[in-house]
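BACKBONE GEOMETRY TOKENS:
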Amino acid sequence: MAGAPVDFGGRVLPNPDNLQPTLDTDIKPNVEEPSGATMSIENYRTPRITKSPSKGYDRIENAHLGHPEMSPIPKHSRKVQYPTGHIVAFSDHLTPEEFDKAAKVAWQKIKEQ
């Protein structure tokens, strides 16, 4: 068998069809570049930059920050530390009754572990 060095530790497979190796970087993508595409600006809101003379800095309005399609992550500032050392955070939008019930359910789950 020709082609493999003497100290090659891998498996050498037969190549009866004499296929040549091809690297991934040698493959030409079968994708056409778009031509004649135009951008729609119907829904675009231009950010406005205004000067704030009293504060001495520029103020940017209507700027798209983050991902507007994603809802904001609710705040979880209510934290309870249980006797086992577990700390569980609960959402701020819970009423006192819902918070009490959720804390008790969490304690039951911790005890079951």
Q: What stands out?
A: The radius of gyration is 32 Å. Helices lie at 96-112. The chain has a mean pLDDT of 79. Residues 75-113 form one domain.
